[in-house]
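User: My advisor, Dr. K., asked me to get a structural model of this assembly before our group meeting. I'm new to this, so sorry if the format is off. These are the inputs:
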Amino acid sequence: MNIVEGADAVSVRSLTKVYKQGLLRGRRVRALDGVSLAVERGQIFGLLGPNGAGKTTMVKILLGICHKTSGEAHLLGVPAPNASVRRFLGYLPESHRFPQYLTAFQAIDHFAALAGMGRSERRARGRALLDRVGILKDADRKLRGYSKGMLQRFGLAQSLVNDPLVVLLDEPTDGVDPIGRREIRDMLVELRKQGKTVLVSSHILSEIELVCDRICVLDRGRLIHEGSVAEMTERRGEWEVGVTRASADLTDAIRAKARFATPRQDGTGYVVGVGKDDEIDAVVDAIRAKGVGIRELVPHRSTLEDRVIDLLRSGGIARMDGGPARAGEAKP
Amino acid sequence: MKLVALMHDGFREAKDRKISTVMFILSGVFAILCGGFGYEPKPAVEVVEDALRPRFQRHFGAVEEGTWELEPAGERAVIARWSEEKTRAEKVVDAQLNLRLSRGITSERRERAGTGPELLVRVGDPIDTAGGVRVYFILRRWSFDIGDGEIPVSAKDFVAGAQLLLANAIAGWIGVIIAIIITSGFVPSMIQAGSIHVLLSKPVRRPLLLLGKYLGGVAFVLLHASIFVGLCWLAFSVRTGWWDFRFLILAPTIAATFAIVYAASVLFAVVFESPMVSTLLAIAFWGFCWLMSVVKEMVGTVKWLPEAAREAIVAIYWALPKTGELDDFAVKVIQGSGLTLDQSVEAALKGREWGLMLGSTAASTAAILAIACLIFWRKDY
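Assistant: The format is fine. Below is the predicted structure of the whole assembly, which you can bring to the meeting.
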């Protein structure tokens, strides 16, 4: 089956998965509850949420590792699961277990063979990828001798062995040292430049913030937010104001013009909250009137981590921009 | 190519677990044991005396000295003489010895002037002649006469007996059980979380993954069964000079028996995801199949059994793979002493519905695999 040109990389609509558990499979656990989502091609998309939110279940349904209860899931425009369309996919699971009895060369050759690649192509591609992830010099060693970080690098290499259009990565930097994390982030950016779509699921939100274009947040099987990283981290009506000299007098002057003004701990400025963005002009005038110089004036941003935690603590009731949650709502 | 890759992976997994090494060593040990037997031709005089003595003992209780005398007449012939007075002995010679002493020994009555009647006894090739060899193990001083007593044994008889022991017990039962145990981890390790997730993300259909593992296991056992049987056969053949190819039928029949039991093991592995449980249940299944063969044979003789129960037993028998019959087939082929391979196979096939048996066995095995594939196909990982 051929992929549909121009179709979203990933598209799910009202996707629901109910696991039947227990001795008689009588206990039902709703892992996904009517999730709708679309990921455009050429993006790095972050899949966020606490443990048990349904992130891995969604990826597994897309890959055919588990079966949906209801709803629709499409990969590159083709209904999932579909073995043929997996030629265009790469996947790194979170708790991977690669064949310990194989060397990295043998293992990547094996996975390439399963992807239907010819022998010469497999060898060249395998060597290049192992070199790219920095384990070429250890490629003749059996995987059982690899550290967690090396296995993670190998996992990334095997996920790219078939030159996929869509790469699904579950905790790709798990167990990797800081230099390795940086290298992996660089690889993700490189993949985006090549036009690939990367779907990343991670708990390390600082990394997601650094590389992702868009994110979605799942909680207890429901989609509670979807949007761009910039949109999520921006705090409307809050500004960072850097000044040449902070003082109690100046603080009072700013507070007279703003909703609030919180001095920075290092005394270099304030976080100022205003009702409307143009009200910041009055704050600037007040500072200048005191004869104090302005060094910077930028919109105040939160970290992604703060925002996601806020969102989850609020039970996903409110959107980042203060609007209602869009759980179950398809991306336009 | 994907199927080959999956089968190859099974081989590498087995190699890594040192299973191949252990199997090679076991095959080598058995080949050395088989090759450790030596077959030293007995002198013709001893062979004839061994053949005559039990007969005389049976007729006269004890054999008196001078009842007969044996004189070598060439390398493989003996002249037996007895005195005219021993008429009773002569009668025995006339009645039995003159016709046929034992397999591989022929005799010819002659009258010679002055010395009375005599028997020219010719002893054939020691490999064929019953009681024609002294079998020893490794060293000649550990020799033993298998042929002592009523049933003299030739080198061929001894080898056939040893081969039957290998076929029935060593390879047919213990070998298959060992093979089931060592391959039982293949499928559960494949469907472990993390491992199966990577495999299922590749463009391979689920049934192919399972069949690849299954066929890899069967090919692995076929290879090692061939090595085991081939080495044992080679050892016997080199030592005796008797190149009988019938024993080689054991390798495919072992692999076929394994393929049946392993299909059940794969099914149980998919359901329970445990090597231990799948091994035990597969062996229990094998035992049940064997039991049903026995019960089906007995069912005709039990008069009080209701017709419905009789039909149910027969139906279950035909629904199950017939592993017992496969063993029986191999044993009959190997037992066909004095026949060619083709003749042995023909004799073994005679009198049974082999086509139906093999067909229903193949169909049952395929059905077990199909159920395993279906469960694997529908399961969430």
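One thing worth pointing out at the meeting: The radius of gyration of chain A is 24 Å.

User: Perfect, thanks a lot.
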